[in-house]
């Protein structure tokens, strides 16, 4: 089995601007970010780890990601992209090592810009629209009754990113990927995922 390289860049996809805050399309930006404007995006560092929040719109995300990848000489497999996914139930997480865009415009832009689909991604489920058009659904806000689930899932997503960075993708997939028909495992009450002590707040 081919060795999975460590993650050097984490990308949170979403649309910039206050009008898009808390929408389904921008759910993946819910983690804490330190903003630094470079590469058509906000760039932060935690040791050797880079964190990027593109400030292009979703369908141009590849412009920002490819600029950072070229500058820091990153391989696709070293880039973890966090994005929304209408094919997953709301709050469900899924980590994959590679794959197609699956209709997600941000992933489609990145694949086109870097010339590869062989980069890992953490998909955050936002559910499929029941009646609304897809664009209206992903640009809409979560209803109030889903807020507790979304908040807990965003916490799990942040922990999944940290685990990917500290312990590797395989460890994160084993912990956070759901088995068939089962939800993601939240950390036990009073416990965090098995991370190195003192490192969680750094990402």
CATH fold naming: Rossmann fold
CATH architecture descriptor: 3-Layer(aba) Sandwich
Order of secondary-structure elements: EEEEHEEHEHHH
Ends apart, CA distance between termini: 29 Å
Please identify the oligomeric state.
single chain
Largest sheet: 7 strands, mixed
CATH superfamily membership? Peptidyl-tRNA hydrolase
Keywords:
203 residues, alpha/beta, 7-stranded mixed β-sheet, 7 strands, 17% strand, disordered C terminus
Task: Lay out the secondary structure.
Blueprint: E1 9-12, E2 37-38, E3 41-46, E4 49-54, H1 61-71, E5 79-85, E6 93-96, H2 105-114, E7 121-125, H3 134-138, H4 147-167, H5 169-176
Parallel strand pairs: 1-4, 1-5, 5-7
Antiparallel strand pairs: 2-3, 3-4, 6-7
Helix pairs in contact: 1-2, 4-5
């Amino acid at each position: 089995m081919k060795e999975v390289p460590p993650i050097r860049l984490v990308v949170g996809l979403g649309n910039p601007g206050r009008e898009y805050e808390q929408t389904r399309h921008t759910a993946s930006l819910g983690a804490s970010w330190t903003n630094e404007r470079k590469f058509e995006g906000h760039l932060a560092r935690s040791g050797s780890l880079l964190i990027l929040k593109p400030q292009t719109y979703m369908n141009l995300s590849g412009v920002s990601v490819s600029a950072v990848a070229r500058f820091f000489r990153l391989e696709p497999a070293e880039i973890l992209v966090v994005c929304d996914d209408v094919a997953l139930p709301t709050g469900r997480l899924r980590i994959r090592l590679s794959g197609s865009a699956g209709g997600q415009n941000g992933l489609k832009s990145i694949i086109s810009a870097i010339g590869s689909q062989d980069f890992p991604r953490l998909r955050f489920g936002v559910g499929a629209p029941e009646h609304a058009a897809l664009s209206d659904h992903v640009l809409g806000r979560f209803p109030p009754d889903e807020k507790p689930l979304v908040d807990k899932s965003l916490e799990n997503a942040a922990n999944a990113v940290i685990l990917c960075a500290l312990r590797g993708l395989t460890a994160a997939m084993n912990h956070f990927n759901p088995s068939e028909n089962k939800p993601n495992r939240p950390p036990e009450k009073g416990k965090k995922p098995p991370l190195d002590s003192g490192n969680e707040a750094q990402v």
